[in-house]
Amino acid sequence: MALILFSDLVGQDRAKRLLRLAFARGRVSHAYLFQGPAGVGKKMGARAHAAFLLCRGASDRDDSCGQCPSCRKMASGNHPDFLVIEPDGVQVKIDQIRALKKELSYPPVEGGYRVVVLADVHLTMLRAEVANSLLKTLEEPPPQTVFILTAVEAAGILPTIVSRCQVIPFSPLPFDLVAAALADGALSPERARALAAIAEGSIGRARELAGSDVLEVRKTIVEGLTGTLPDQPGAVERIFSLAELASVAKGELTELLELLALWVKDLMVRSAGGPVNAVVSHDLLHLEDYAGRRWSFDQLKERLAMIRQAQKQLRHNCNRALVCEVLFWQFVQPKG
Fold first, then answer.
1. Quick one: which of 137, 142, 169, 259 has the fewest CB in 10 Å?
2. Residues paired with residue 249 on neighbouring β-strands, in sequence order
3. Cα separation, 79 vs 67, whole angstroms
4. What is the C-alpha R_g of the chain?
5. What's the predicted TM-score (pTM) here?
6. What is the dotted CATH code of the domain comprising 6-169?
7. Residues 151 and 33: beta-carbon distance below 8 Å
8. The domain 212-331: what is its CATH number?
9. What is the DSSP letter of 91?
10. CA dihedral 66, 71, 75, 76 (to 10 degrees)
């Protein structure tokens, strides 16, 4: 486990400024809630802040020193005063909170802060007894103990828990930052920019997409739908084949349909006289003229509504293959 510094956290300057300022003024909160969209650095930020609080370097520092015994223990994953509570299965169990309370009854091993991280509390604190047990701990926190909770949204968390925390907002990252972070790896600048545009400010989402072939699958499906007319020989078989290709995408089907929706939106912009987003649809520009002639603005609007309906059906656990078959067959019809 590598040591994570504030300087390793891409963007989130406001969050880092708030945390550093509280430390410099001696006003470290006993509990923080790092809140923001998925994949923007909340968990990484929690580890960076934990390392910062536990670091034994100079008191006027603005990051972990990386050299002291505490930093070396964080880097090795063996710091006795850094605790991470992870779900036992789907959720955190009440026994885990009880065990945490017992451990917190003792003072920090090294005499400074003790930091407890609970990630994704909007998912792992769904059981009332677990949330209420945590609340009691937050209401009467042990000395020198700092809790860092992360959540995509606060709606699923007890308001009383939120009220006991200092909320630190994490924001979607600018397009250029996401693209630059992706380009630092093995991705070409063109692909990095395309994924950054799709990811909507989430490096986590962009990196997940980078490890998949979802862009290539989208290209195959769009080419198939654009080139298929319902009265052509073999049209039904082709639609079934495209639906099977989409349905086996498993967790990527949601992203795939959203990519299809982005392409339709691009065509609608073009139909209205605007430019197609060459970053998002750079691999589909060869279809632009034909697709623009085949579907009018109103027909494209109908197809966007079809995609949204399919996404809604998938959220209700409808049969994936059937949803794709119906969507693609409606898509190639002369009218929606």
1. 169
2. none
3. 14
4. 25
5. 0.76
6. 3.40.50.300
7. yes
8. 1.20.272
9. B
10. 140
